[in-house]
Design brief:
Blueprint (H helix, E strand, L loop, with lengths): L11 H26 L4 H10 L3 H10 L5 H13 L3 H27 L1 H12 L2 H6 L6 H21 L2 H15 L6 H13 L8 H14 L4 H11 L9 H18 L8 H20 L3 H22 L10 H4 L4 H8 L13 H18 L12 H8 L7 E4 L7 H9 L3 E3 L4 H7 L3 E7 L9 H9 L4 E11 L2 H10 L7 E10 L2
Parallel strand pairs: 1-2, 1-3
Antiparallel strand pairs: 3-5, 4-5
Helix pairs in contact: 1-5, 1-6, 2-4, 2-20, 3-4, 5-6, 5-8, 5-17, 6-17, 8-9, 8-10, 9-11, 10-15, 13-15, 14-18, 15-17
Length: 508
């Protein structure tokens, strides 16, 4: 009698490849969907403006700002081929993000095994923070790709001592420094880990020192620019009065955003559930993580220390520290890999924790696409749709009034992009005198005291009886729970909507 089974033999490797492909495909779809749905926000609008310039002009603009030039030079070349519209320009970041997911999977498999690698890939791909910023026309995803590449090359060099990996380390290290200054934290962590394991790698002492010197030498041409930027932006006494509170506030917000993203209110019970899962996974990682998983934690701590320090000593707007999660997006893969490094657990029920966290991430992703619970409402302002609404007015007879450029660069960008004359609120007398038939006043609520409130906008324009209010609309509503948190604990000015639109028509 033939006892052979007719059931097909399952190939685990084939199943894993299929799962990886499906996760990457889902990530690709989500990133492009986000790129197509959301308008540029302030920093992205600045990137799009620079992408239209020559390489020399881009380098000069970044030198005057506070960033190194590599990402903006690459984006400028990309923009000249694919355009500076949202999907075209953002597609470059999506490519970097997809490549980063692949590298993160490889790194997680090397550090913690196949099961942990699949969990890390899924959690990273559907992370609300990556969903929000993975397609952003900023340097975040390029820094993430370079950082993961550098750490991977470093670990392979420690394992094999092959000079090719050290060359890759030097090239990637130079690329990191020319993309994001705080990414220096990754290089610091690599050097600390190398020192910890020096007894195993004494034969590599001279090549390793030479590699660090080459990375440093590669940055020498840009060093005068960095020095000038530091002299302009750094104030060492800026936060000294409440240093402990400032560090706690920044670290707390960074931890929350890394764990749960920025589209889930901290007062939402789903966020509490997600936080409990994260605490459980972190506890298991502390108890069971081994070997190189601790190096990834060292990388993360080094990045946090560098970024927190910079956020305290550099002069930013009052709420500028809230940009820490997106500026440090490249640290997210290291956190997620470390959080799953304990897999598989001795008790099967514990292995469900990553799946439960993935469920929280999917619900947070729903918030992102439906415009709910944005901790940063400026990410949810539909600028392109607003400008398409304004297109009903003749360009030559229409004026747009935006908040000062330092407060809302996106408004200025889109106004000019659609061919309109854009003015600051202080220029209202000039607008009134010019006799524009249509005035669209886009009032941006910044959460800080401003010159004009919604009622004051109407009184300013209607004062001389030359205009009448034709319509008003509000955009990017802020969740009630977030309004309470920001006014009660952060001392910000309360507002319901990020943007109030007023359309005034000149009376005949």
């Amino acid at each position: 009698m033939d006892n052979s089974s007719d059931a097909a033999v399952v190939d685990p490797k084939k199943d894993s490849r299929l799962l990886i492909l499906l996760v990457l495909l889902a990530a690709l779809v989500l990133q492009f969907a986000g790129a197509a749905q959301k308008s540029y926000w302030e920093d992205e609008a600045w990137t799009a403006t620079q992408a239209l310039k020559s390489p020399a002009e881009i380098a000069l603009a970044t030198a005057r700002d506070r960033h190194p030039p590599l990402y903006f030079l690459v984006t400028g070349a990309w923009g000249k081929i694919f355009g500076v519209e949202e999907v075209g320009l953002r597609s470059l970041s999506i490519i970097f993000t997809l490549a980063s997911l692949g590298l993160a999977y490889w790194l997680a498999r090397r550090v913690a095994g196949q099961g942990a690698a699949l969990a890390a890939l899924a959690l990273l791909a559907f992370s609300p923070l990556l969903l929000t910023y993975g397609h952003t026309a900023r340097y975040y995803s390029l820094t993430m790709l370079l950082g993961l590449g550098l750490v991977s090359a470093f670990l392979k060099y420690l394992e094999t001592h092959h000079p090719g990996y050290l060359v890759a380390y030097v090239l990637l290290g130079a690329g990191l420094l020319y993309t994001s200054y705080p990414a220096l934290g990754i290089l610091l962590a690599c050097n600390l880990w190398w020192l910890f394991s020096l007894r195993k790698h004494t034969a590599t002492l001279l090549p390793w020192i030479a590699a660090q010197l080459m990375v440093a030498a590669s940055f020498v041409p840009w060093l005068p620019v960095l020095t000038a930027q530091v002299e302009k932006d750094v104030v060492l006494e800026a936060q000294s009065a409440n240093l402990g509170i400032e560090i706690f506030k920044r670290a707390g917000y960074l931890g929350y955003a890394f764990g749960l993203g920025e589209v889930l209110s901290p007062l939402n019970p789903l966020a509490w559930f997600g936080a409990l899962i994260l605490i459980g996974m972190a506890t298991l990682a502390l108890l069971r993580a081994k070997g190189a998983a601790w190096f990834l934690l060292l990388v993360l701590f080094s990045l946090v220390a560098v970024n927190l320090t910079i956020s305290i000593v550099v002069v930013y707007p009052v709420s500028g520290w809230q940009g820490l999660p997106n500026r440090m997006l490249y640290g997210l893969p290291f956190l997620i890999i470390w959080l799953v490094a304990w897999l598989p657990a001795p008790r099967k029920i514990l292995n469900t924790l990553p799946a439960l966290l993935l469920g929280v991430y999917l619900l947070a992703g729903f918030n992102y696409f439906t415009g709910r619970e944005f901790i940063k409402p400026f990410l949810n302002v539909p600028w392109r749709q607003i400008m398409q609404q304004i297109e009903v007015s003749p360009v030559e007879q229409t004026a747009i009034i935006c908040a000062p450029r330092s407060g809302d660069y996106a408004c200025w960008y889109y106004g000019a992009h659609f061919g309109y004359r854009v003015f600051a609120p202080s220029e209202w007398p000039k607008v009134e005198q010019a006799g524009y038939s249509d005035v669209w006043w886009l009032r941006t609520n910044l959460g800080e005291p401003e010159r004009e409130s919604g009622g004051e906008v109407e009184s300013i324009v209607l004062a001389n009886g030359l205009y009448q209010l034709a319509e008003r609309a509000d955009y990017a509503r802020q969740a009630d729970s977030l309004r309470w948190l920001k006014t009660r604990w952060l001392g910000q000015k309360d507002y319901e909507y990020r943007l109030n639109l007023f359309h005034f028509v000149r009376m005949k």
